[in-house]
């Protein structure tokens, strides 16, 4: 009787072990399934990462190329600007000094600069003995602005070697002394006396 009871107890112990084993196996299968899903997801994420890294690398190279292109374009623009306007500035100053040659010493302009640093062209000037550039549109009188406008027009015509220039009343709002200087310049300047014709109103 006691042996039978021992066998029953051992049977129950074995069945308990079997049940625990089956439960553990079920949990292990669940873990393996989850691990398989995780590995699949990880593979997809790695694939997406490769694609994203490739895209980011392309964007980085694009930014680098654009930055380089923009720098080269800006350098070209500045070089072209200096090439085109460097000589023009000199010619403007030459004509302006002829028109205003009787101005007081402290008003005598030594040079003009065409400034486009703010993406908007403006004419700056420097008087003799000064290192300060000032805005002509602010500092010049109406008469001096007209003189400057005429100087710019003449300088541009001379540089581009225009075959003829016709003016009508170019001395409007300019006093008699400066009118005389303009007439003298028209007569004596090597370019103007060949190509310019003008009408003056008294």
Model description:
The protein has 202 residues and is mainly α. 68% of the residues lie in helices and 11% in strands. It has five helices and five strands; from the N terminus they run αβββααβααβ. The chain has a three-stranded antiparallel β-sheet with strand order 1-2-3. Strands 4-5 form a two-stranded parallel sheet. Strand 1 (109-115) and strand 2 form a beta hairpin. The N and C termini lie far apart (150 Å). The model has no long low-confidence stretch (mean pLDDT 82).
Short structural summary:
The protein is mainly alpha-helical and 202 residues long. It is built from five helices and five strands. A three-stranded antiparallel β-sheet has the order 1-2-3. The protein has a two-stranded parallel ribbon with strand order 4-5.
Strand and helix map with partners:
Elements: H1 2-99, E1 109-115, E2 122-127, E3 134-135, H2 136-139, H3 142-159, E4 165-168, H4 176-188, H5 192-195, E5 196-199
Parallel strand pairs: 4-5
Antiparallel strand pairs: 1-2, 2-3
Helix pairs in contact: 1-3
**Strand portion, in percent?**
5-15%
Q: How many strands, what sense, and barrel or not for the largest sheet?
A: 3 strands, antiparallel
Distance between the termini: 150 Å
Give the overall shape, derived from the CA principal axes.
rod-shaped
What is the count of helical runs?
Answer: 5
Q: Count the strands?
A: 5
Strand order of the largest sheet: 1-2-3
Q: Structural class, please? A: mainly alpha
Helix content: 55-70%
Mean of residue pLDDT? Answer: 82
Order of helices and strands: HEEEHHEHHE
Q: Which regions are unreliable across 5 or more consecutive residues at pLDDT < 50? A: none
């Amino acid at each position: 009787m006691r042996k039978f009871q021992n066998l029953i107890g051992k049977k129950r112990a074995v069945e308990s072990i079997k049940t625990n084993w089956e439960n553990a196996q079920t949990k292990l299968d669940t873990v393996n399934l989850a691990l398989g899903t995780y590995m699949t997801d990880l593979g997809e994420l790695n694939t997406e990462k490769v694609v994203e890294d490739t895209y980011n690398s392309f964007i980085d190279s694009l930014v680098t190329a654009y930055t380089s292109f923009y720098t080269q374009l800006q350098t070209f623009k500045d070089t072209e600007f200096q090439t085109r306007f460097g000589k023009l500035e000199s010619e403007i100053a030459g004509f302006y000094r002829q028109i205003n040659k009787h101005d007081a010493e402290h008003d005598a302009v030594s040079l003009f600069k065409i400034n486009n640093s703010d993406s908007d062209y403006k004419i700056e000037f420097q008087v003799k003995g000064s290192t300060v550039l000032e805005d002509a549109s602010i500092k010049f009188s109406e008469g001096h602005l007209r003189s400057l406008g005429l100087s710019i027009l003449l300088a541009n015509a001379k540089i581009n070697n225009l075959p003829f220039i016709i003016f009508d009343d170019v001395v409007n709002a300019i006093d008699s002394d400066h009118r005389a200087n303009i007439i003298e310049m028209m007569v004596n300047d090597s370019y103007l006396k060949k190509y310019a014709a003008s009408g003056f109103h008294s």
